[in-house]
Every structure is written in C-alpha cells, then in structure tokens.
Design a protein that fits this description.
single chain, 195 residues, alpha/beta, Rossmann fold, 7-stranded mixed beta sheet, 36% helix, globular, disordered N terminus, binds S-adenosylmethionine
Length: 195
C-alpha cells in the first residue's frame, strides 16, 4: 500500500471510542488550551455547534464560556462518545448548557428550526472522517447565522497542505469567506465567516 493509499484509508476511518480517554487528558488541555480557543471564538450567551465532539474535550470549554444563557450542541456519529459527554458534563455541572445530538454518517441532521441560529460551528479533527465534506459545509452554512463563525482544524499527519487548501475552497463554495488560515498548535486551521 502506498503512502497516499494509507493516508486516504485512514482519512475515512472513524475514531474508535475505545480510545476516547486519549482525547481528554491534562496534557492535551495544556497543549491545545481549549479555554483560550473558546475565549477567542465564543461570546457568552452564544449558541455553538461542536461537530464531531468526541468525548467532549472542546464541549467543556465551550459550555463554560457560553455561560448560563448560552447553549452548546455536541454532535457525533457515535452514541458511545455522546454518552461520555453527558456523563462528564453532568458530573461537572454543565449538562444544562449542553444538548447532545447523534448524527448520521451522511448528515448532521439537526432539526430545521435550528437553521440560522448558531453563532459558531466547529469541526476539529473530524472532517477527514466524514464521507461528504461538501454536504457537511453546506449544512454548517444553513445552521449558522449570517456573520457566524466556522472554525476548522485538521492534523497535518492525516491532511496535507494541498488537501486542506482544497477543503478551504470547498467551504468557500458553500457560503463561507475565509477570515484567516493559521496553525492551531501543530494543526492546520482556518476561520471562516458565514456570508
Ligand atoms: C478524532 S475524534 C475528535 C474529537 C474531538 N473533536 C476532539 O478533538 O477531541 C473525531 C470524532 O468525530 C466523530 N465523527 C466521525 N465521523 C462523523 C460524522 N460523519 N458525523 C459526526 N461525527 C463524526 C467520531 O465519532 C469522533 O468522535
């Protein structure tokens, strides 16, 4: 199997919930500073979609940041991940700010009454696992308010610079304006505005 084939194979592999613990460690908190990311992207009282939330590493920081009047929708394909989010957020007294939602592989599938109500959508280390990124980005565009923010990050070990540029162009074709492209710790990252 060539390097390219290996990469594209791993690209669509869904993260195994057996290893969910690895995604929520003190070291990861120290390196990624989800609290600082939340301060940068989330306004208190806002509505956030944490797509591909896994075991809630970013959900926690977003839920702390939105405060009592905000709301975080934590969406994932795998019920095991959502169960971990619910257990953890309840333990930490944050569950009343969080709604968990199970996606289907080909669609987020949130109810239409939520369209145009989100201030922020994030897709952190997940788009390479999704079979139809164009549909995903279009759904983000539908769910976000005009002027809302989409934060997108991918690990370079799985997504090359060229592939990431391709995804940026795809997001632009789905109703987003690129605001900045940078690094999120050692990962590729882009911030978009819903136009
Ligand atoms: C590598 S984990 C990242 C989790 C989290 N964003 C983090 O960085 O801690 C990717 C997550 O995306 C979820 N996922 C993969 N494909 C998905 C899809 N089509 N829809 C929703 N979630 C998906 C997986 O179940 C997994 O929990």
């Amino acid at each position: 199997m060539s390097v390219m084939e290996k990469t594209s194979h791993r690209q669509h592999e869904v993260f195994d919930p057996k290893h969910a613990d690895h995604l929520d460690t003190p070291l990861r908190r120290f390196l990624y500073r989800p609290d600082r990311l939340a301060e940068r992207l989330v306004a208190p009282g806002g509505r956030v979609l944490d797509f591909g939330c896994g075991p809630g590493f970013f959900t926690r920081a977003f839920a702390q940041r939105v405060g009592e009047t905000g709301q975080v929708f934590s969406a994932d394909l795998q019920e095991e991940m959502l169960a971990i989010v619910r257990e953890k957020m309840a333990r930490e007294g944050l569950m009343h700010r969080v709604t968990t939602h199970r996606c289907r592989p080909d669609t987020i599938g949130l109810p239409a009454e939520l369209n145009g109500t989100f201030d922020l959508a994030t897709a952190i280390f997940v788009v390479h696992e999704v079979p139809d990124p164009e549909r995903l980005f279009s759904e983000f565009a539908t769910l976000l308010k005009k002027g809302g923010t989409f934060f997108f990050s991918e690990p370079p070990i799985l997504v090359s610079g060229r592939e990431f540029s391709g995804k940026i162009a795809l997001a632009e074709s789905c109703g987003f304006r690129l605001v900045s492209r940078s690094w999120y710790f050692v990962n590729r990252a882009a911030v978009f505005e819903r136009v």
